[in-house]
Amino acid sequence: MTYRLDMSMMLAMHDALRRELERVARVAAKTGDDPRRILRAAVGWELFKKFLRVHHTSEDVALWPAMRDAVSADGLALLDAMEDEHAAIDPLLDGVDAALADRENGAERLGGLVDALVTGLGGHLRHEESEGLALIDATLGEEQWSRFGQTHRERIGGDAPTYLPWLLDDKDPRVVAAILDGMPAALREAYRDEWRPAYDRLNLY
Hints:
Number of helices: 10
Number of strands: 0
Mean pLDDT: 95
Radius of gyration: 18 Å
């Protein structure tokens, strides 16, 4: 679908979240080692949780409220659904963490909790892409959309050197180039010379 607003960073974020869901699911399905031990110590699991929460909080604070006065009753119902779906994700993340810390019954619970997270977050991303992005595109002006992006960047804050390579991890080089081309030269250089090499040295899972 073609959008009036630039959705490239939003779609890149969704792709990154799906990538991490796949990685977490693979770890949880391991049979030769205790997946709880791996995930407990996994930098990738911590980054996934942190950046997912930043993304959802930014939407809840700077995106959905800005749209409420401008949409129809159907649009309001969709915004309510977006917020409800967000609210259902944090308990799943907490449930996985609780299973990781549970020495007695955590191993039995982990697989089902990860499956629920994959289903819940995956369903939300599909719903947002099939209906939410079109509503955003039809409702917000460029200034409001930029304000959301600024809120997101402010919430990333000092984690930007890890966030950007995390966001672009495993993406098609042409997509990476297109996203970086829209950024200041100094940031592109920092990504190439410092941020990406440091990220590549992380033992994610």
